[in-house]
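User: Here's a protein and a ligand (biotinyl-5-AMP). What would the complex look like?
Assistant: Let me lay out the input and then the predicted complex.
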Amino acid sequence: EVDSTNHQARELCLRGAKEGTVVLAESQSAGKGRLGRQWQSPAGANLYASIILRPSISAASAPQIPLLAGVAGANALARATGLDARLKWPNDIFVHGKKVGGVLSEMEAEGNRIRFIILGVGVNVNWPKEDIPPDLLEIATSLRAEAGREFPRAEVAAEFFEELEREYGLFLKEGFSSRLREEWNRLSWVNQKWATVTMMEKKFEGQVLGLDTDGALLLMDREGRMQR
Ligand code: BT5
């Protein structure tokens, strides 16, 4: 058990751990979501992993990494389980309209140069439905709850890491390619839906058109204006 695999990976990274180093935990006492939110991390059921990345890309391109991790995750989960895994911008993996996984990407940079990125991934694998806290039941699920059977966590993890390694390798060569963007759009759970995006104090409302060439989400508002 660790506090958070992202925290442990960061400590290793500061001591010089190489790109590709992975921290896996059985449970987390302080699992983190984005923006200070909590990630429920019970023992014996799910996947909690953080991967150290040291990409030579500009810090401005860093938000593309969780997008590619989402594509890798959705494809890996679909392959491992046969379930229809989808994406909700920017970082959620959905099955049957509920959240089955999330990505938390934390970066350290100097100016526009990335020192490292800690890519954290949580997937609810064998979490029994009756153990999911009542306040999450409406929005969260597990692979087991949706498929009606258990999955070996090591196999799910291996599938995910393989897919991630492939997508990350392509990303380093090609950048945020049109192939990756089309793949994200194909897997999107939100495209065509009416959505509200809250950013700092700003709120955008509109129909989701999909990803722009750089990974920004495109919405068409009521007046027919495109919002990024
Ligand atoms: C995320 O945040 O979706 C990113 C989650 C990343 C978790 C991994 S586990 C390994 C690594 N180490 C860490 O400490 N974290 C990463 P966000 O979009 O902010 O979603 C958080 C929200 O999802 C919470 O406020 C809850 O509403 C909901 N939630 C909490 N735990 C959940 C769970 N296990 N499954 C589904 N939803 C959950």
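Summary: The chain has a mean pLDDT of 96.
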